[in-house]
Design goal:
The protein is about 0% helix and about 55% strand. With about 120 residues, it is mainly beta. The strands form 2 sheets. Strands 2, 4, 5, 6, 9, 10 and 11 form a 7-stranded mixed sheet that branches. A 4-stranded antiparallel sheet has the order 1-3-8-7, with no helix packed on it. A hairpin with a 4-residue loop joins strand 7 and strand 8. The model has no long low-confidence stretch (mean pLDDT about 95).
Length: about 120
């Protein structure tokens, strides 16, 4: 049974920081890119950041310079350090893992709420 378990969300004032964690459990098949997405109320889900299996990191323009994605392979955990948070960062943040032989299978966590106000 594969599972992505997220934690670290919460409420913070503008300018504050939070760190999200996503632990991958039960994955025995090929794992490709892991990343974070977010969905604000009334809006479509948007990509935030990705960490490739080769160690490459990628960010949406809206978070570049403020968010840092990292991975602890020993713990099978992905992190998103979020600094200088803004009210527009308020959203449900979800962890994604692309797996399968051709990296076409999407796995999702349950989501963790981040509120900046």
């Amino acid at each position: 049974h594969v599972q992505l378990v997220e934690s670290g969300g919460g409420s913070v004032q503008p300018g504050g920081s939070l760190r999200l964690s996503c632990t991958a459990l039960g994955f025995s098949s090929n794992r490709c890119t892991m990343g974070w997405y977010r969905q604000a109320a009334g809006k479509q889900r948007e990509w935030v950041s990705s960490y490739s299996r080769y160690g490459g990191t990628y960010y949406a323009d809206s978070v570049k310079g403020r968010f840092t994605i990292s991975q602890d392979k020993d713990k099978d955990t992905l992190y998103l350090q979020m600094n200088s948070l803004k009210p527009e960062d308020t959203a449900m943040y979800s962890c994604n893992l692309k797996g399968g032989d051709y990296c076409t299978i999407d796995y999702w966590g349950q989501g963790t709420q981040v509120t900046v106000s």
